[in-house]
Design brief:
Blueprint: E1 13-14, E2 17-25, E3 29-35, E4 41-47, H1 49-52, H2 55-68, E5 79-83, E6 90-94, H3 101-108, H4 113-132, E7 145-147, E8 152-154, H5 159-164, H6 183-186, H7 192-208, H8 218-227, H9 240-246, H10 257-269, H11 279-287, H12 325-347, H13 361-369, H14 384-387
Antiparallel strand pairs: 1-2, 2-3, 3-4, 4-6, 5-6, 7-8
Helix pairs in contact: 4-7, 4-10, 4-11, 7-9, 10-11, 12-13
Length: 429
């Protein structure tokens, strides 16, 4: 429950407990965070004034206290003491630090499948302990379930039972909450089976974030509880059969709390307890994570797909269309060959005494570009580095159409060894 400062009208001391904050308020009273003489934090619930002024309730509630102290469940708060003779009756329990189920869902949305299973198991264990002590909760609902670090905790059991046996229920105080009541509770005959019905309603609410009987006027909701089927489509398959059975209109057709707990924990019975002797604690150790926050949006970093599943291609960034390198080199070769031909035509026959030197520069250049013609073969280059070899390091003598350019130094290049097919012939004088 959220802590808020004490108000001016709030007491600073109740019995031997010093009050330090307000935890919440409901139809039966106000809950405070208190500290006992030893410094231990406790929850102190001060009941409403109309309860204090009603002797019948004081007597009945005093009888209930003995049974309340016998409840020793994993998922119930321990009752420390109660005083029905004080000017304002109060009940002291252990302090369970955590939001209520309704507060949690309002802030974070429905529970995931694992945590929902832990909630269902914890509530079934709490009801089994409460019913074993001879108590009927009568008001199990999201605001009476606290989500602590160790698991769910059920509160306020026993108060509704004491209230339901007095004439206060005839003066405007309804035991239970619209939307979280069993059909027999609507007509005033609740028993332990009514808690099983509200167990299922609470689990369905935690799965979807809304009551399975909808919203609206209380009379309309109560009519749906009596006559229509609930919406439990959000309940996972592993819990759906149990929730459906617990929502039967006939109380006799519903499972009991021990039967629910047995069905929920039977998978852990044959497995090691993972350090816990209680099956409920084993399940909670595997499923419970109330501090985990639900992500607000898609993850910002790259996601890794599950093993065996290829990652889906993401959107590609726009790129320039690249021209294949062989095309570029072929065009360059044609341009160079054309320029050589034009140069030879313009120069005409050489007038020097050594005819072999007349074509020294142009023929050498054309011979050095001939490796570009090797890309017409069926074996493409394996890398960009192989396709961009500097012409100065290419040996025309060792180049073949089906091989990559060699890296012979220019000093070993001899025009006399150039293949006639790749080098224009010299013009004799």
């Amino acid at each position: 429950m959220a802590r808020t400062p004490l108000r001016q009208t709030d007491p600073s001391q109740v019995g031997r407990y010093r009050l330090i904050a307000r935890l919440g308020a409901g139809g039966m009273g106000v809950v405070y965070l208190g500290v006992d003489p030893n410094g231990q934090q406790v929850a102190v619930k001060v009941l409403r004034p109309e309860l204090a002024d009603h002797p019948e309730f004081r007597v009945r509630f005093g009888r209930e206290i003995t049974m309340l102290t016998r409840v020793q469940g994993v998922c119930t708060v321990r009752v420390i003491e109660a005083d029905t003779e004080a000017p304002k009756p109060f009940l002291v329990t252990e302090y369970a630090d955590g939001p209520s189920l309704s507060e949690y869902i309002d802030a974070r949305g429905p529970l995931d499948a694992g945590m929902l299973y832990g909630l269902a198991t914890g509530l079934a264990e709490a009801l089994a302990a409460i019913h074993a002590a001879g108590i009927v909760h009568r008001d199990l609902k999201p605001s009476n379930v606290l989500l602590t670090a160790g698991g769910p905790k059920v509160i306020d059991f026993g108060i509704a039972q004491a209230l339901d046996t007095t004439s206060l229920t005839k003066t405007g105080i309804m035991v239970g909450s619209a939307g979280f009541m069993a059909p027999e509770q609507v007509i005033g005959r609740p028993g332990t089976a009514a808690d099983i019905f509200t167990w299922a309603v609470t689990v369905a609410y935690a799965a979807s974030g809304k009551s399975p009987f909808g919203t609206g006027a209380p009379d309309a909701i109560l009519y749906r509880i009596m006559h229509t089927a609930p919406d439990i489509t959000a309940v996972p398959p592993g819990l759906h059969p149990l929730v459906e059975a617990a929502l039967a209109k006939d109380p006799q057709a519903r499972p009991t709390a021990p039967q629910l707990l047995s069905q929920l924990t039977q998978q852990t019975a044959a497995q090691p307890s993972v350090g816990y002797g209680n099956p409920t604690q084993t399940i909670l150790a595997q499923t419970w994570h109330p501090s985990a926050t639900r992500p607000a949006g898609p993850p910002s970093g790259p996601t890794v797909p599950p093993p065996g599943i290829a990652p889906s291609p993401g959107p590609r960034s726009p790129r320039r269309r690249k021209i294949p390198l062989p095309v570029v080199l072929s065009v360059a070769f044609l341009l160079a060959a054309g320029a050589t031909a034009v140069g030879l035509a313009l120069a005409g026959p050489s007038t020097g005494t050594h005819g072999s030197t007349a074509t020294s520069t142009p023929p050498t250049r054309s011979a050095q570009i001939t490796p570009a013609t090797t890309y017409s073969s069926t074996a493409p280059p394996t890398s960009a580095a192989a396709s961009t070899t500097s012409p100065a390091t290419t040996s025309p003598a060792t180049t073949s159409p089906a091989s990559t350019p060699a890296t012979t130094s220019p000093a070993t290049t001899s025009p006399a060894t150039t293949s006639p097919a790749s080098t224009p012939a010299s013009t004799p004088t």
